[in-house]
Amino acid sequence: MVKRAHFGILVLAYRLLVPLSAEAQHTKESYVVYMGSPSASSGAGDVEAARAAHLEMLSSVVVASGELEPRLSTPSLTHSYHHAFEGFVAELTEEEAAALSDHERVVSVFRDRALQLHTTRSWDFLDTQSGLRTDRLGRRASGDVIIGVIDTGVWPESQSFNDAGMGDVPARWRGLCMEGPDFKKSKCNKKLIGARYYGIQAGSAAPTSSNASLGAVTAAMTGSPRDTVGHGTHCASTAAGAVVADAEYYGLARGAAKGGAPASRVATYKVCSMGGCSSSALLKAIDDAVSDGVDVISISIGMSSAFASDFLSDPIALGAFHAHQRGVLVVCSGGNDGPNPYTVVNSAPWILTVAASSIDRTFQSSIVLGNGNVVKGVAINFSNQSLSGDRFPLVFGAQAAGRYTPASEASNCYPGSLDVQKVAGKMVVCVGTNSMVSRRVKKLVAEGSGASGLVLIDDTEKDVPLDAGSFAFSQVGADLGAQILDYINSTKNPTAVILPTEDVKLFKPAPMVASFSARGPGGLTESILKPDLMAPGVSILAAAMPSTDKADVPDGKKPSAFAIKSGTSMACPHVAGAAAFVKSAHPGWSPSMIRSALMTTATTRNNLGQPVASNTGAVATGHDMGAGEISPLRALSPGLVFDTTAKDYLNFLCYYGYKAKLVRMVSGDAGFACPRGAPSPDLIATGINYPSISVPRLAAGKAVTVSRTAMNVGPSNATYTATVEAPAGLSLKVLPERLVFSRRWTTAAYEVSFGSAGASKGYAYGAVTWSDGAHSVRTPFAVNVV
């Protein structure tokens, strides 16, 4: 009887599971259908014709998929791409997506994923590091360059977008200033010349439960170009904000705030909300930005390095490729998954990928112990504690553990680990030996337990000050932390106060690679050295939306019009602004020429004259900082540039492994043929005319020869001589050793041969530098000895 009952349950379970399985196969999700460069027959340039063609393709596949039940409505498109590239977005089942991927006009089909945001004195610091006069060189900038910022939108009332003194908007501008309930067209001006947003378009399908996270992102974006996060406003003002005197964040970082190209125009494209960014909306924003007439696009967005996407199913890589085809430089953040290797994202060779560094300013939060000793910690806090006020009992977290709570959890300030009776009114000391609990969570745990403040002993992220608001907080490393613990253990009634933060300028050494900054090599290919460049990304002051959260506003203060943020998100617009600055002085330069100028003139020395270091103190490598820290003033006159052509990028796709037919569809060049030897990762390193060199495999006894072609953009009759920086055991030969240019715009080719002469296994780093006495053109290299 029991066996029969058991059999009956199995039959019922089977009958329930079969319909569920069938239903899962027909669940609809948002997919991007990418079709490469627009063709003449696709209705390129005609919005309605292109949209109609996409609907026709979609309808044919939906009908052919043989749905079990008829649709309640006709197929519809969420987005249609038809300017720089062709494609569309629609709600599809897996079966329909697979059918579309087999269509002869389709390059790739991929899920519409939610991407992540990679979330001032910095420009003065860069100018100082260049050693050049800013007044003379700065006059070469013009206001005709347009920067498109694809992010969370804009807070138009910020003084960083004041258009006082600006001339008319360039006649070539074709963009829009979209309206919403809280955003009128009048919010745009001669500085903020465009503002678009991307929500759920009329007629598109509603988000499905299987795509709930993306649905939440899209729904939150519907309605207005206004920034409700603060990230986009910060990035836009960093790139091209007007000069704002006496900018500050509740008294900290006081000074003139400005963007890298304050004379440039800004257009914003809102594709993100607090929940993330829609990849299909981002693709649409790139398509629109190129059509609108922008010169540079700044994207501080990407996916996690743990989920690296193929180049032809990566929305940022695809959009950036076609933007580059149209002469638009795309600058992207490299991600915040550092300091581990193989974490850099947005690493396609046609993208300028940016790492983050510190500047010569830090925020000091001093801890004054009861014995009079002052321990200098790092944080941003606006507490009301002072030397003349009360002292608070000092207790180590492990000594204040709740009942049945392990001391290890209480010492790390785990949620629920502290005994409120033992903590209330006291200064708590916690450690960061377990990375599962972030600094912000530890702060909330201490604050929620009634503590008067928190001292965190943790070397992790110590280079990035935490903003603790009005709560007394300070972070110290293990060495200083040991002094505090010794004081607690040797004193009957230990006490302490944490003083409000003060900013320390002219801090040395700087720059330094930020701990969070993602590192190379690239996960998809090691044959291109990534990141490309480094720029300020730690504690950057820039415009922001005024906070409505009382916890973010110090007692007695009004919400600040500026914010201090850290991330490669902040580094990216620094480079976008620098690129716009170079573009304004050299309007005829291609995107790759501008990138080359920024890379070959980058600095690799800090303000002590020593090699730039990583956050660990070790000398930074090409996989930490790329070519080095940007020097926008030096980039105006680079001497030589490496112009990576469209053919270089198409050859890259072939060498990487894509078939010639797909590459032709991507490029729109029906006559293109892949070069001999493709696919071959080794040929990427040797044959692509990139401003840096990465050799993924160098075996003993087998030399690798890399070719490059330099273009003279300096004076005529110039002669450049090569010098080499190479580690012991790595043999390196440059032929010829001299490059002679009779005129400007002429080119000269050379080869660099690498060989192993007892070099240690693993990556070796160095550089080849060409100099004519006035210019130094530095090309970094990374060689993996196997």
TrEMBL record:
Q: Which InterPro entries match?
A: Peptidase_S8/S53_dom, Peptidase_S8/S53_dom_sf, Peptidase_S8_His-AS, Peptidase_S8_Ser-AS, Peptidase_S8_subtilisin-rel, Peptidases_S8_3, S8pro/Inhibitor_I9, S8pro/Inhibitor_I9_sf
Which residues belong to the signal peptide in this entry? 1-24
Q: Fetch the PROSITE patterns from UniProt.
A: SUBTILASE, SUBTILASE_HIS, SUBTILASE_SER
The reply on keyword Signal is yes
The biological process GO terms on file are:
proteolysis
Q: Which residues form the Subtilisin-like protease fibronectin type-III domain?
A: 688-783
Please state what the protein is called: Subtilisin-like protease
Organism (species): Aegilops tauschii subsp. strangulata (Goatgrass)
